[in-house]
Amino acid sequence: MSQPSPLDRHAIRQHVRHLRRALTEEQQEQAADRLAEHAVNFAPLANANHVALFLSVDGELNTRPLIAKLWQQKKQVYLPVLHPFAAGHLLFLRYTPDTLLTPNKLRIPEPPLDIRQLITLDKLDVMLVPLVAFDQTGQRLGMGGGFYDRTLQHWRRHGFLPVGLAHDCQQVDSLPAAAWDVPLPAVLTPSRLWQWE
């Protein structure tokens, strides 16, 4: 299989990010609330104790209503933190209503690096992952940094379920797949659940 040209991926990324940013504040709020409702009724999430997710940037679906629901259900929530020594890798740290967040070098808020709050991937039940676009086979296009591609590389071995979170407008017919891309077994949008496994 030939590698997709970076241009294809870049063009799709630009187009979908533009669509996502064009949503009004009201559309964003409704989407976030609808997604939170769906997500808590999704069996793997309903049964999970340890859930990793992300804080939204750049028009991504707002995860805060979902985080609030997970906290209400007494679930442990974790956010990604840029690994201090292994460039391009993520660590996941516990996030509570009292956690003080500070922006990292990508300007994404993250919890302080405290080893006592760290969870290893094999202890996670579900990881909700950001994406720029996804297609009908579960192929995911991220922001291009490869952080989640590396994190998801051996998800089956670690035993957690990765689930993409996206606006409905982020679904495209088909994405050019690269060798390092890890397809997702499921994606949740405000209107539906996509499952491939």
TrEMBL record:
Keywords: ATP-binding, Ligase, Magnesium, Metal-binding, Nucleotide-binding. It holds the Pfam family 5-FTHF_cyc-lig. It catalyses: (6S)-5-formyl-5,6,7,8-tetrahydrofolate + ATP = (6R)-5,10-methenyltetrahydrofolate + ADP + phosphate. It is an enzyme of class 6 (ligase). InterPro entries: FTHF_cligase, FTHF_cligase-like_sf, NagB/RpiA_transferase-like. GO terms for biological process: folic acid-containing compound biosynthetic process; tetrahydrofolate interconversion. Its EC number is 6.3.3.2. GO terms for molecular function: 5-formyltetrahydrofolate cyclo-ligase activity; ATP binding; metal ion binding. The keyword Nucleotide-binding applies. Substrate binds at L55, E60. Belongs to the 5-formyltetrahydrofolate cyclo-ligase family. This is 5-formyltetrahydrofolate cyclo-ligase. It comes from Candidatus Pantoea deserta.
